[in-house]
């Protein structure tokens, strides 16, 4: 394939090796305002029907009309908003009464942490500590149209904390009650039965736990035109059969669920807390856990408390109830947060801990190892007319282990047109408003000032993306310092294994076939755009800090390497069998578990959130049944 030379930008030449050492907000505030998202852009309200009939509340216009506030508020988002539930409080409200203790202390009110806390609270006293604020009242979280704004918000109170892996790929981790479910693209799809078997989970309990989540916060989408075109294009390109609307992971093409309802209103894992027992549940926001405290007097170190900092920087200690058959500290701080906290607490490779003068509680060389991220590459396809905004609704599951999904719509919402999305935002790439060689701080500022005046046509188009399942390329996480607010260094080594690259090429070739089908061509006039042109457009649309080559579209392999971005499905760092056992107990210590995406060797399903939430519920029920038998009554 002969292609024109791709461009390289001044910005992409910034040394990723230096950047990853950045604790963005504190050390490089000027840089942090330039970090941003990848390719899922700008959905709009679509009419979705629910997995169960909509409630009266959903049928009113109330929520929709509430969202029409001033655009500037949306750009900033909202900081600490009034929690919906009385048991959710600011961390500063914590005062340790002598003798007060908890059966379970859960660190991280995210995708796994919320269903876990709700479930355990049925029988036990639970303290849930979340470093972020409330999702309620923040329309950058609640409104599907504003998906990208949270990711663009790099302020210290943003629900999304940007980080850059040492590979040079811009990434994000959640920092809000509800975790990843508050900032993600909402697609909901289960893991395959073989995944469940490989995890040694109890199939029956798994089959009870998914519906527990689904009946509370999952909906069926009303398929948007771009998603319908992908569905039909996939089938015509041979990714068949069509499996209809299903949560199940089946080869072929399907429409999955979503946590956005028919008004484009996001439902999150935080909503699952409503299923808990309010008398037993205490949720603290802006409670940043610094470390786990161990009693090291006995045969094995035992977790007995955690230290956390409140929103005013004051330190507190929350303690576990003592006694036989007692509870645990449970880390559900996500694939970055959980290994980071183990390391900060003295569990990890001895040599690394000693370098940072962290007292060693337990040497375990596997903590932070085996980190993976499913690499994503996407093709940008301009369209004849603006296409309705959409996030993921359709997926093609190929036998090669490549998943094909799509997003569309770059016509800005009235909120988002006002916002500065940073020089690395996909829309700048799509627009090519700033020629790559001229991308600079000043150019980005000028762009941000003038953005509202740009013609809407410039935002027309959609992405078809592919991600590979279970990458064989793995990396690691290590601490840069002892500050828990500062993201650790993470390396994913994208495409270091040749089979991953082979699968990426297969994915891009499949997309090429889909682009040529009449279903996509109808919207795009794709005949006008040979694949070479689309690849070149896509080089600009997918911005990362990976060093560029002048021939990065000369081969699909080079395109895969140079345009790799993330679909945010990173996982690992606390693998089962290496850091935790099959009950998710940290090996070698007592009173400590890890229950979240950091325990996965592979990301479940095509997209993980369904299984992470299921896992929270599943483990909650399992623990209750183990401790109480029939009396658990769950
Ligand atoms: P999280 O949900 O991140 O929870 C960890 C929580 O712990 C966070 O709330 C964090 O603030 C808190 N925490 C961390 N450290 C501390 C500490 N020291 N003290 C106190 N609290 C702490 N998946 C899908 O299935 N479908 C999608 O469409 C999809 N799109 C995505 C788009 C984006 C932008 C992102 C970021 C992710 C997406 N994902 C999607 C992935 C999915 O959302 C995540 O895999 C999942 O949410 C991870 O869950 P978790 O429980 O492991 O971590």
Describe the model.
There is one protein chain. The chain has 634 residues and is an alpha/beta fold. Helices cover 28% and strands 17% of the residues. It has 21 helices and 27 strands. The strands form eight sheets. A seven-stranded mixed beta sheet has the order 9-10-21-22-23-20-26. A six-stranded parallel beta sheet has the order 2-12-4-3-16-27. A three-stranded antiparallel beta sheet has the order 13-14-15. α12 crosses α17 (498-516) and α17 (498-516) packs across α20 (556-562). The longest helix has 20 residues, at 609-628. The radius of gyration is 23 Å and the shape is globular. The termini are far apart. Mean pLDDT is 82; it is low at 1-73 and 422-434. Residues 107-113, 129-132, 151, 172-176, 179-181, 183-187, 287-289, 332-335, 337, 341, 392, 484, 568-569, 596-597, 607-610, 612 line the site of flavin-adenine dinucleotide.
Mean pLDDT score, rounded? Answer: 82
**Number of helical regions:** 21
| Beta strand count | 27
What is the overall shape? globular
Low-confidence stretches: 1-73, 422-434
Main beta sheet, described? 7 strands, mixed
Tell me the strand percentage band. 15-25%
**Biggest sheet, spatial arrangement of strands:** 9-10-21-22-23-20-26
- What small molecules accompany the polymer chains? flavin-adenine dinucleotide
* Helix-strand makeup class: alpha/beta
Helix content: 25-40%
Radius of gyration: 23 Å
Separation of the first and last Cα atoms: 59 Å
